[in-house]
Amino acid sequence: MPDRLTREEIERMEELLKTAVTSRSRLAFTRAAYAFIPKAIEELKRREWVSVEERLPEKEERVLFVTTGGARFVGSTGDRNIPGDNWWYTASDHFEPSEITHWMSLPAPPHTRGIDDAIAE
Predict the structure, then answer these.
(1) Domain boundaries, the chain
(2) Which InterPro entries does the entry mention (predicted)?
(3) What angle do CA 73, 76, 82 make, to 5 degrees?
């Protein structure tokens, strides 16, 4: 074996190295994408209307809900401290359970820069 590599051999090794890195990156990306799929499906399910006959949201979870008349409100169900409280509440009104047909989870609020972020810097 010669002590030195030819220019062609060096260029070929560089090409092989680039391909190996690219393949490794693609593999990492593919794994990350597959890991993300169940999370994406779960998030899409959270954005679907759920019939109150199918299931109810957690007590005091803020959700978007629809009345039998088609009006939409943001509110929550019941009070954990009052057993049997199945009413739906908004900031200014309340509804009997029979008045609600569907509900949907609210998306998480966006992160806004606050005083804690400024202090952390």
Answers:
(1) 1-46, 50-105
(2) DUF551
(3) 140
